[in-house]
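Re: the pair you flagged

First of the two:
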Amino acid sequence: MDGTWNGLTIPIGLEGASEADALDAYSRVVTSVAEMVLPSVVALTTRRRGNRGQWRDGAGSGVVISGDGLMLTSAHVVEGSERGGAVFVDGWEAGFDVVGRDPLSDLAVLKLSGGEAPPAALGDASNLVVGQLVVAVGNPLGFAGSVTAGVVSAVGRSMAVGSGSASRLIDNVIQTDAALHPGNSGGALADSRGRVIGINTALVGPMVGQGLGLAVPIDPATQTIIAALIKDGRVRRAYLGVAGGSRPLPPRLIGELGSERGIEVVEVVEGSPAQAAGLRPGDIIVFAGGSNLTEARDLQSLMTGDRVGKDFALTVVRGGSVLELTARPHELSEG
């Protein structure tokens, strides 16, 4: 009896079958992914000016995503830098310029200065499952072209990020046990077919949880962010000015509104569009822009650039009554 995994036949439960057989199959997958992805992953070096005016060197990884030299990396890798250097695994060196960065997704797009580069194939992290094999490729601790493998430890995680006074959650972050170290940030997390399904972004240290790595997923939401960075060099987001969390609705209103939960407003920022719309702490927002809200991330996902300056309908429960309010979101400032 044989089993198949990722197109490979692995002997299972037969005499003569050994752990080495399974290991060989596993190794073939990892080496195949490494061969496909390594040529597209670069070691990045940057220089940034510190708070006291001194220059500081930085390092990280990047992934080529187009034949004309566009690259993806983590926004924090190129924070404070407009250009730097890139070294490929075969030793070829080139400079790069920062095309755009978005600290609130921890993604940045770079452009190689001259020369063609082999692009990696981008996948879709939307269908990842716990236990799936993933391969991390990057340049940890200055060791260029390093490959580690592991599994998806969890999906659907959220990671808080901030820039100046602005903050948000990155949704659907991939958690993996593939070994990551400083310098892996901006590198590739690939599936067993060699498709890049994440950009490694964070490492949980040994004092917190050794062996846990996080990656920003490549999915439709981040593809939109990447396209905006390529086109405009930045990502526009709308700002409402509320903080809150999920709360059940009063039983008598569940049938009337067709929803069991909403977002309870805990704080309304002074001078914000939410305050101008008449929102108050204690209100429960059930619908916004025609969409049902059950968690804070539902509202966050609606705060796209096309909402800026446009009327935004809100259905709110206040003191047992249902109110209809209208807000006009501002553009979110990262300062």
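Second of the two:
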Amino acid sequence: MKESTRTRLGCREFLRYSSVAVVAGFLTVGAATTTLAAEESINFNGWSAAVDLVESHITAFEKKTGIEVEYGNLPWAQYRDAMVTKFVGKAPLDVMWVSDAWLPEWAEAGWIQPVDQFKELTKYNSDVDKFCTDSMTYKGRQYGLTYYTDYMGFFYNEEMLKKAGIAKPPETWAEVVEQSLKIKQAGLSEYPLMLAMANESWLIEFLSAMVFSQGGVFTDDAGNAIMQDPKKGAVEALKWVVEAVQRQKIVSPATVETGELAGLKSFAAGNHAFALEPKYRLRMLNDPKQSQVAGKVKQILMPKGPNGSHATVGWMRFYGVSKHALENPERAKNVVKFVEWFGGKAEGEYRFQKFLLTDIGAGFCTRPLFDDPDIRASYAKYAKIDIIAEQQRLARKKDVITPWFGEWNEFNGAMWQSAILDQISPEEALKKSADKWQTLKREQ
């Protein structure tokens, strides 16, 4: 449910894609073949997730509307590169899954088009969490309809807290320190808090959750860096992590080499009392076939800093449409029907989003589904749905998603790691990150 955060298409990369554009029209994605002759069909591409469910929903759409769909998919690792190649080669694409991290790049290139002229699609915005709509909006235009979301959650091992004599889980980051030290002193865990700070695609979510909960931001409303400002939360968040690793020793110094999956496995093995993890991981953590702490893992609201709140970071995926999809009025009409069938309601209900949750545990942006009896029953097997819904209301979009995000993200991750290892001060690290951001911004 996670992917690369690279979003910037540089000159060399563009030329590389252009050099193979000659064959782009003949590429196939998955088992389905897209042909230029199939003008009556909708060409839809996604990555290889919930394939059987997608195919079933397509079949129902074709039966209901008589509109044919050519569906293709690729493993996530290949998807973005294949799609960019197709875009550059002007392949006949209509609808595709899009990550919020790619929106600025794909919109600037004209590869995907705004859909806010279609009331059939925007009418669903009133049922969707605001950060989801914000995450598919660029320069004031809405570029799609959402079907999936998740956020960074805060989990704790209830049994370990009880053994340490802790009656109530933490509400603040200060209490996380206090309780972690108590657990450490009791010999229950060497490093009570699991943080995954390897410089991989998940890192920006971990950092954003901690910055947002400290009341901070990376950038202002004009897109300028303010992460270096000690009063804007990012410096405070980084200082907290440095203290946790270097002074309090409640987080392992190996955190800078720990990826999300490795951290998840360590928490599932019972090595920690607390962990930041994507919310959907609750399903695995409370599955006795996959986790040694099944039945013991609970979620609470993200701890807050002295000037912060229980805010966290969210991410989402959406159905985007191409220029090709809108060139012909009849095709555009069919495409809108297709997007609504998957991202909105199908025969009066949010069917696809519901299927994703009950079948594979994938979250949704659509608030009414939190009251659906089947959804509530599905979540009840491993989580408390009311906490999930409350935390999702407090989720915010990443404030660093720009055409230059990918290049800055690598640099910023290295700066945080240097500070965590005590090689550079938090203030200097974020000053360098801010300078890098402003340089890249000016180069656009």
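The two ends are 30 Å apart (CA to CA).

-B.
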